[in-house]
């Protein structure tokens, strides 16, 4: 029988589309149980680190909002620090569809 950690890692690998939107959904889906909440957060934190390892990634405004939501969840669960978020933000080239005009 697979451990919960392996099961969640496999689900993430099979179902993830590589977006922060999916990461947020994954965190929310597995937030009900303490063990799955902790494991899902570790999985997403690892993806975040890998995804933003190379500087210059551009994301759209929707993904930017999901990225910040994911960061907030991971900070709340004490898996990343504010300084790490700052470093991630500096690696992002920019927001593809930001027009500079507030709504």
List the helices and strands and how they pair.
Blueprint: H1 4-15, H2 20-29, H3 34-51, E1 57-59, H4 61-76, H5 82-91, E2 92-95
Parallel strand pairs: 1-2
Helix pairs in contact: 1-3, 2-3, 2-4
Give a description of the structure.
The longest helix has 18 residues, at 34-51. Helix 1 packs across helix 3 and helix 2 (20-29) packs parallel to helix 4. The chain has 103 residues and is mainly alpha-helical. The protein has a two-stranded parallel sheet with strand order 1-2. The protein has helices at 4-15, 20-29, 34-51, 61-76, 82-91; strands spanning 57-59, 92-95. The protein has five helices and two strands.
Which features would summarize this protein structure in a list?
103 residues
Query: How many DSSP H or I helices?
Result: 5
Give the terminus-to-terminus CA distance.
Answer: 52 Å
Quaternary organisation: single chain
Which descriptor suits the 3D outline? Answer: globular
Radius of gyration based on Cα positions: 14 Å
User: What percentage of amino acids are in beta strands?
Assistant: 5-15%
Unreliable spans are none
Which range best describes the helical content: under 10%, 10-25%, 25-40%, 40-55%, 55-70% or over 70%?
55-70%
Which structural category do the helix and sheet elements fall into?
mainly alpha
Q: What is the residue-mean pLDDT, rounded to a whole number?
A: 86
Task: Write down how many β-strands occur, each being a DSSP E stretch of 2 or more residues.
Answer: 2
Order of helices and strands: HHHEHHE
The main sheet comes to: 2 strands, parallel
Enumerate the strands of the largest sheet in spatial order, edge to edge or round the barrel: 1-2
């Amino acid at each position: 029988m697979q451990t919960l950690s392996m099961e969640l890692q496999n689900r993430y690998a099979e179902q993830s589309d590589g977006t922060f939107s999916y990461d947020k959904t994954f965190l929310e889906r597995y937030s009900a149980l303490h063990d799955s909440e902790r494991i899902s957060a570790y999985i997403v934190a690892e993806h975040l680190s890998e995804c933003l390892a190379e500087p210059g990634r551009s994301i759209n405004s929707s993904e930017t909002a999901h990225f910040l939501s994911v960061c907030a969840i991971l900070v709340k669960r004490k898996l990343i620090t504010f300084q790490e978020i700052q470093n991630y933000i500096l690696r992002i080239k920019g927001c593809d569809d930001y027009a500079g005009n507030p709504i």
